[in-house]
Amino acid sequence: MTAVRVSGVSKAFGTASVLDDVALDVPDGELLAVLGPSGCGKTTLLRLLAGFLAPDAGTIALGGRPVAGDGSWVPPQRRRVGYVAQEGALFPHLDVAANIAFGLPRSQRRARSRVAELLALTDLDPSFLRRYPHELSGGQQQRVALARALAPGPSLVLLDEPFAALDAQLRLDTGNAVARALRATGATAVLVTHDQTEALSLADAVAVMRAGRIAQVGAPADVYAAPVDLGVARFVGAAIVLPAHVTGGRAACALGTLETVWDGPDGDVLVLVRPEQLALGATGVRGRVEDVAFFGHDAVVRLRTIEGDDELSARVRGADVPEVGGEVRIAVRGPVRRYPGTAG
Ligand code: ATP
């Protein structure tokens, strides 16, 4: 079953087009991350799904039911959609229990067991029930906001940059707790974010958005390994892009002659190498270590090739960090992808 079907949706504010012919399917129970830079139209898409906005063209169906476009219109309160905003969505004068109960139908507002169940689902201790929002950390507040959104048993949960205000570690922990809670309820979810790590690590599928259009949709590993173009490649991770000349499926570039993923015509291309594909060891082209950013578990090593004077970054294990100023050999592990284009 398709929980969300967006077909040919366009939206403009005045003369400014914000979404242009957007098509997107989200299967039942999937957590989809919509990833894109600020201003590309992510929130607008979410607001169209929620019913806070109507599309200018195209149709939206939720759970197989048309909700917008083609003469149909279902208002937000009848879409069975939960919404989690960036921050500050809790009622400051209500405690956690009352905030969560607010999401329940009137007849169930006194159902303490349901409130406790929702709290547990979002991995929060029962002792939080009597606390007020200002007595919670940002991450805890966002989990309560999710518990409230899940209270009425929505089929679809929309999350608009829900972790943006949190610092890195809290962001990761809260994100994981939220993704677990969503999976446990079986709800379909659309998470809007401009953070590629968040999108790749939490979601079942990622839709990369660019200037009001969907550039690519796929499983996180596929979008990372096989981006449709270099723009997507750079947006979902660090990318080394080198001019190369392909002959018989092998690309000659500053890092030697490399296997390519697919056979295309011979000629000048650009190849994409991910920093973790670089191996620093006894083989490969000669390079000098310019500097090292050490992260503990791993490190990013900035290198310059000695012959071509090309600058590259390698991602290596924390234990394998070379000496700054030293000479290393740089080899490429695995095949590389080729894209149209030439140097300069
Ligand atoms: P961010 O990550 O910064 O929130 P976004 O990708 O969610 O960005 P949107 O909020 O969808 O982007 O906005 C896309 C564009 O539409 C922006 O240029 C914004 O200024 C414009 N926009 C959004 N809502 C309105 C509105 N109600 N009226 C006029 N312009 C709007």
Automatic annotation (TrEMBL):
Q: Which residues form the ABC transporter domain?
A: 4-236
Give me the Gene Ontology terms describing cellular component: ATP-binding cassette (ABC) transporter complex
Which key words are in the record?
A: ATP-binding, Cell inner membrane, Cell membrane, Membrane, Nucleotide-binding, Translocase, Transport
Q: Where is the signal peptide?
A: none
InterPro entries listed in its UniProt record: AAA+_ATPase, ABC_SmlMolc_Importer, ABC_transporter-like_ATP-bd, ABC_transporter-like_CS, Mo/tungstate-bd_C_term_dom, P-loop_NTPase, Transp-assoc_OB_typ2
GO MF assignments: ATP binding; ATP hydrolysis activity; transmembrane transporter activity
**Pfam family for this entry, one:** TOBE_2
Question: What protein am I looking at?
Answer: Unannotated protein
Say which species the protein is native to: freshwater metagenome
